[in-house]
Amino acid sequence: MGEFKVHRVRFFDYMPTAIRAMAFNAHTERLALARMDGSVEIFNFTDHYFQEKVIPGKDSRSTESLCWVGGRLFSAGLNGEITEYDLENLRPKYSLEAYGGPIWTIISNTQGTQLAIGCEDGTVKLFEVLEEHIQFERNLDRQKGRIISLSWHPSGTHIAAGMMDMIRVFDVPTGHAVQRLLVDRGFGGSKSQETVVWSVAFLSDHTVVSGDSAGKVQVWDGHTGTLVKTHLVTKWDVLALSVSKDESSVVAGTSEGTVIQFQFIAPTLHQQQDKEWVRTRTFKNHTHDVRALAEIETAIVSGGMDTHLVVRPLLEKFDEKSHASGLRKIHFPHRNLVSCAKKAGLLLFQFPGQLELWRLGDSDGHGKPGDRLPLKRKPEKLLLLKRKGEDHICCSALSSCGGWLAYSTVSCVRIYRLQTDNNNISITKVSKLPKALRSAHQLCFSSDSSKMFAASSQSSVLVIALTQSECKYVHTLKPKSGSRQPIHLMTTSVDGKWLAAANSDCEIRVYNLQKLKLHCIVPVYGSCPSAMGIHPTTNNMTVVHADQQLFEYSIVEKQYTDWSRKLQKQGLHNVWLDRDTPVTHVTFNPKNPNQVVLHDMHMFCIIDQSLPLPDQKTQFYNQMTLRSLSEQERPSHLHAFKICKTFQDLLCVSLLDDQSLVVVERPLLAITSQLPAPVRQKKFAT
Amino acid sequence: MATLCEGFTLCGLVQTQNASDSPIQGIELDEDSDHAVVTDSTRSVTLYKVSDQKPLGSWTVKQGQLLTCPAVFNFQTKEYVVVSDNKVIRVWKDEDLNLDKAFKATVTADVWRVHSAPGGEPVVLFQRGAVRFLDSLLSAPQQPIEDVLSEEEVIRWSASIVAEEQHFVLFTTEQNGECCLYVQRLNPNTLQKYRLEREDSGASPLSFSASLRDKHLNLLYLYPNGCVYQSVVAARGYVGLEGVQDLPRSLRLRLPVGEGELGAASAVALDEAHVAVVGVPHPSARTGKDFLCIWNTNFQTLQAGKEMAGRIHGQVWCYLGKLFVPHGKALSIIPYECQKSSLASALGKLRHTGIAVSKSSVAVPSWNTLLHGDQPQGPTKIVETRKSKLSRKSQSAQALTVDQVLELIKTGPVDEVQREVEVLVSRGDAQDLQLSVGQLACHLVARSQAETAFYTPVALAQLVQTQFLCHSVCPGLLLLSLEHKDYFLCQLCLQLFPDIPEVVTCACLKTFISVPDGDVEMVSLEPDSVSFMEGLVAAGARGGQQNGFSPPLFEEDSCDANHQPKPPQDKKNHTLQLEACPVGLHKAVLLNEVLQTPYSDNFLLPHLKDLDTQQVILFLQYLQFVYLKYSQDVYTQTAGLRSPTMTQIIDWVCLLLDAHFTVLVMAPDAKGLLSNLQSFVKSQVKLFSELGKIESSLQELHKMKLSKDISQYSIEVIELF
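ok -> structure tokens follow
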């Protein structure tokens, strides 16, 4: 296939923020995840844990707790507000001041009719959930000391509240506290410190399980208020608890990064009746605090200070080793944070608070494969653009010529004109933006930089014409019917004729930009598209889905191409299907129309459509083998998927117009090294 | 450990007119493991569900008729079979209500028992010894039945055992005080008769119990004097043998009998090591014989005991972990558990109950004798009967039995004893050589200890070389050999005994060190160890270094092990190496054996203090010598030879220093030695610190691959194929 010059970029200091809370919606199988910066992510657990939505954060918002009520998502935070999210427009729908000081926790009852929040001022406030809003109902008896954690009894009649040094059980109809469970303080020096009951769980048999800052998981009888069992699990804090749906298992997350499972089982085989809560397993997948936990049907989902989401399948729920039974760690977002100007050799990095524009270095040397070339010009940070306002950047784009730059928050869109002559760069904000352009879920420039496309609400796309000094609203491409879900992927063809937009309902619409109308809808596939691209010469669209399936669709003929049909007929190689990170970017080689470049977190792949497809028996990762073979033997071993794993932790792989690859790596080690120090643990011989 | 669980009553019993007769004839299982078919001594058969303690069904024959054999369950046809009035075989099913309406067949001869076992057809054993399958008998009930037994021979006990493909019927008979065991194999039918050894008292066994283990039929029988014997008959083979054979037996257990003999008692084997006994007094309880006990035959220990209220009829059945014992007015079921015995539990039990267990012949280490220091003796001093004397006269040309040799050892002259032991050991085929070797050794040692003139080194060496001996079996042996300066035997013992106590090791060490070189050099020792030592001594004498390496001069802090051979007077380097070995060759060989003996330092240390300073210094010098030799490159250890390891040497040096440090510090002649040893330590410490340094470098090698400098940006060239 040949040699490639690779720009190996490691200067994108992307730093995910810590996970603060999560809530799992068992009905829709969506996991909502709140991070420290106030952003909320929605993962679809039925679709290979695909991150289908991201609601950007805001400086003043700090989410402490998340809660699903049916399909509605609520959060509450230390800013004292309850927020409901608009999941179609990826923004807060409304925020409501609760007037109770900082809110530590928010829960709903099983019927989904009421919300309860725990406030700093010691009140538990009940809110009624209305059609479009929530309304304050009443306070339960006010306590001295803050309410840190809450749990609603499944019957809805009682609420357990974790406080400082104690747990209160409230009778909901009367609002009175009926039980007072005193939680012991820690031993030794921590005796003088109040014990914070970080988490409580109220089971249907009126058992209360609590996790506290003294490192205990305690089981209480909620009827009598007596302590049944204490498990001292850590020297540090037990921060999170989660109960399985059948209430046979409770998991606890600790500051040490462990997740400890307790199961309600009989200690001996003979007496199956006398069940008790027994500590069973310990999972250690985190280095830092486990702040958020969810025990779902077949797995334990955990996240915390070390920023990655871990899905740890419970192996006893699986009959055989399969794709689903593997441990999943989700480190990077499933969308692009890097834009690459292919003609100009510029990179745009998107941070929540700023954008960075870099010019790649240069080298005129030639070298053998494996060599590192001497640099003629070092890479250069051209621009650091800080956003205005409190809202975090949700998307950004750089035109391929490098002349335009745009970003959007939930409240505004900004477009900049960039001019680079030799070493000077000048940036001008485009001042007058059309009124229709309020915010965008996705931004994208046409390849000739004459137009900009902004994905707007209800799956519509705004077309903006760009000229030297101004930008003008042209048209809104609006689907007549179908989903109102936000667009998360957008791509245009090089000839400027086509625009494809995919939304989180798995619909991909192709618009004809000359006629400014819908051209066709790609047949809906059951898994969300994670990356797509339109071929520069053939106008075939390559779509990769979260379940790793790969399709090629001819826009002109409105049907799948022969190659795609052949691929589907033969089936993708199991090694390909078993990868656990989605493909996040598709580009093409302008010089060789047969080549498609894809990448996920752990590899990039060049698909050569002229070569035979691998069948299940073929060695899939065959680069090493090919290298060892002689020139004559090689052709018989070639197959279409050329995979390179030299580069790891990839955020972007793109092919510049000069045929060189750009690889943006963000080593996990570098992320780990920027985390705060974990709690000290006594290790042997230290 | 074995335990008896809390028992429960299955049913009440009706006292028969004759109080000595048991109200129960037999208990059998049917296909449900929770069922028990109980046949009483008169007219009825009752089926019980054991766990519910309640009867499921009962069948009775008419008044005037009598059941003469316990009912059994035919596992193949799912029917019950019983015999009434000796000749009428009745077969019925579970759902039949009336036994009189059941199928009946009258046979021509008196039936002794019907036996049935899972996986086999029911078999009918006639009182005159004939055996028929039930099926074939019922198809022709009037067929003639032959007599197998002679007129006065009566069957006392019978059992049937089904092995994988073999079906056996075992029965014992009695005639004029002589007991015989018949083993009837079915398909093909062969009958083998064995004569049981007579007990001295002339009594016949009270009870039998048969079991199949490792393809051998084990017969366990209890005599009124409390002896429980075991005899083993191979399940296969011996088919062609004609005539009556003597059945060898071994004493498994001697039960405490108390006053008088046992009346109604029974023993049943639970597993290899455990025997359940009823009707025998509890050794630590009051008089009275109404106990159910479980004994461990390996350790001769009582494992569990339970008093059974009321009269015991000497009956016990054992099915599926439950013991069925009729006693008083009830039939009790006592579940039991037998775990593999561990020494600790056996010992613990011993101390707990404080039973004085009778001495036994078993050569498995008897913990009782070990603890109390008794000399193991032949447990059953078998009085030579006229018969055995006769047979000995006739056989002595060939070989004596173990017992006879034991007798001989007590009185016989050295030569003869030596010869006979040799013959016995070299015959070697006896499967229980293990047992006899222990006995022989103990007897030989006992005699030698009693008579100083009597000592049989060759015989003892042979016994040791069988590798069946260990120190605990015959504790006196090693010390005896030391006493007699039989260093060869000492060496053998040190090599082959795994369990020499530290005190004895120390005694050996002391003797070896203090023995004059001249004495030892003449002794012939095990050639391998001698050649090893020769090689070791010679290695230094050859001098020189490999590859022309000449060591640098000795420096104060020289740390390399290589340099150590040069003591402070390094100019006399060669002379020192030549005369280095501070002890004679053979003495060194013996010391090496001591070095390789297993020990635990806590126990060894106090005994090491017994050595006097000169001995310690000499030994340390020797250890230093070996250490230096080992440290040399020149010496390459011969693989396969038994030799002390470097670690063993260092450990011994440490131990000796620990034990005698204060003395050594004061002793002027130990000064040089100590400073040398100190430099050992230094060099070892340095060696390890050097290794520690290398470790990190080696780890770096691992990381080398990844160590490619990772910069923020680079342009690389890759090639894809």
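The longest helix of chain B spans residues 671-704.
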